[in-house]
Amino acid sequence: MPDLTGRTAIVSGGATLLAQGVVESLAEAGANVVIADIDEEGGRAASARLGAHVDFVRTDITDDADLARLVQETVDRHGGIDIVVNLAATYLDEGFDSRRKDWLTALDVNVVSMVELVHAAYPYLSASGRGAVVNFSSISSTAAQTGRWLYPASKAAIVQLTRSMAMDFAVDGIRVNSVSPGWTWSKIMDDLSGGDRAKTDRVAAPFHLTRRVGDGREVGEVVAFLASDAASVVTGADWAADGGYSAMGPEQAVPAIPKLSE
Ligand SMILES: NC(=O)c1ccc[n+]([C@@H]2O[C@H](COP(=O)([O-])OP(=O)(O)OC[C@H]3O[C@@H](n4cnc5c(N)ncnc54)[C@H](O)[C@@H]3O)[C@@H](O)[C@H]2O)c1
Fold first, then answer.
1. Strand partners, 214
2. For every one of its 262 residues, what pLDDT tens digit does the chain have, with 9 covering 90 and above?
3. Cα(262) to centroid of ligand 1, in Å?
4. What count of other Cβ atoms lies within 10 Å of the Cβ of residue 87?
């Protein structure tokens, strides 16, 4: 069990279903957690549900004044910042039909704002002596998916940015890693399946070795580990939390060679 006692974490996008498992893992490991999300109602509900060590600061991560206020309020409440989890994202993506405005919006939310949040928190992360940043990438960073151009490009950029941050922050004792979930039970899946987890697992089964979607909490355990001293030797890495999605090749988990003699 990673120990985050006395540390303070900001989780962008922390109001959504998947993120609540991440916030829970960090809080149970002992951290004070500040949810930074544009969703005021969801953020307040999550902080009320998740207990005294979880606060909410309404934040639009594309707004630099909001980021400055988030950092100030976090420091005022908790005295510093040790961990930043960049989870907020947009799925805005019309593939080839997406034009400049959509590209700039998607890259602003998914990539540029993550860097700006780290910029705002950097003085406190470096003062911490045990600073850790965990960036949310995705299986979409390495696999092509039909009709998707913006989201996968943004997630691939995050993997590379993680390396760049790890390189330049090593001198400050700040470790930077990314986590790449596979299909994970989340708001979009809840909405699209009408809350049918069993159906979602059936759809995901052929392309996850675990034959199901993951849980936010399972991804959260990886995030808490990466944020903790248990991962003191880990920096600049992308961690798969994907039920084996990325281990599987195009043959999936089906014997292909016997088909030659059928
Ligand atoms: N759902 C999956 O199966 C899956 C798979 C791989 C990776 N991921 C990654 O996990 C993370 C969460 O995914 P999700 O499916 O739960 O997404 P989601 O769309 O449900 O949640 C995104 C959250 O970010 C917030 N947000 C969006 N724009 C914001 C802004 N400008 N300022 C502040 N907050 C903002 C939203 O309000 C929301 O709470 C994302 O980074 C996603 O890329 C998800």
1. 184
2. 899 999 999 999 999 999 999 999 999 999 999 999 999 999 999 999 998 999 999 999 999 999 999 999 999 999 999 999 999 999 999 999 999 999 999 999 999 999 999 999 999 999 999 999 999 999 999 999 999 999 999 999 999 999 999 999 999 999 999 999 999 999 999 999 999 999 999 999 999 999 999 999 999 999 999 999 999 999 999 999 999 999 999 999 999 999 999 9
3. 45
4. 26
Apex 17 CA angle, 1 and 48, nearest 5: 80
Helix (H, G, I), strand (E, B) or coil at 6: coil
- Which amino acids are annotated catalytic? 151
- Closest ligand 1 atom to 60 CA: 32
Mutate to test the pocket of ligand 1, among 11, 12, 16 (most ligand atoms within 8 A of CB): 16
What residues does each domain of the chain span?
8-186+214-245
d(CA 257, CA 116): 50
Rounded CA separation 123/202 (Å): 46
**Cα(248) to centroid(ligand 1), Å:** 25
Provide CB contacts within 8 A for 226, sequence distance 6+.
Answer: 132, 134, 175, 177, 179, 234, 239
Which CATH superfamily, name and number, covers 8-186+214-245? NAD(P)-binding Rossmann-like Domain (3.40.50.720)
For residue 139, give the ligand 1 atom closest to its CA. Answer: 6
Which residues contact ligand 1 via a Cβ below 6 A?
12-13, 15-16, 18-19, 37-39, 59-62, 87-91, 109, 136, 138-139, 181, 183-184, 186-188
